[in-house]
Amino acid sequence: MLLKHGDFDGAIFYANKAFVTTDSVRAAEVINIATTNRQGQKEVSEETQINSSETPAEEILDESTEETDAEKFKRAKSSNDQALLLSLANKGYAQAYFPVAKNYYNSGNKKQAELWAKKAVAANVDKKQAHDLLDKITTSFTQSDSKNHESTQSTPDVQDKNKRLQDALKNPLKGGIATIVILAEHEHYAPAYYHYARQLLQQGKTNEAKQYLMLSIEKGVNISECKQLMEALED
Question: What is the pTM of this model?
């Protein structure tokens, strides 16, 4: 009965009693069966404990082979994997900012190149290279604006504005000052920005004057004059 219920220790105990009192042959058989089964039960239990405590080999392999961002970056740079570099940059991996900016610049997307180069500067990563790239971008933008400005010089509207500006500069006290204000503030005529900035300085409006000097530089008009005046203001 105890053997059927798996109580092998109990079966051995009572079989030992029977061994010295009644049926010694049957008692010996019971002891043998119970001992064998108890050993098997113990081995199964130990194997179960070992299996439950072990980590599957596949999980260990997966953990050991997962790439870090640094490893991904190294691989992306060596193979020039632009998609992976951009993915890392979007995740906030600062080392990828400048390579992404450079890729955008080489592909002609200067707006995105400027954005990522500024991020590199802010993160203090590849700072010198990023500054150099920003200088290139600024120069290219200035040259582009200058060409656009030159290409529009022959239109009737621009010719009229240019004439009004020249007349205003010749006769500042005969409505010239007001004309420059109108050309700069309301008609956004870039060649008037520098002259309007000088008027603002005379009125003590230094910050506003600087804004118009910067606008003029960005538009590629009166660049040297504006830079000289900006440097004088910084001294």
Answer: 0.39
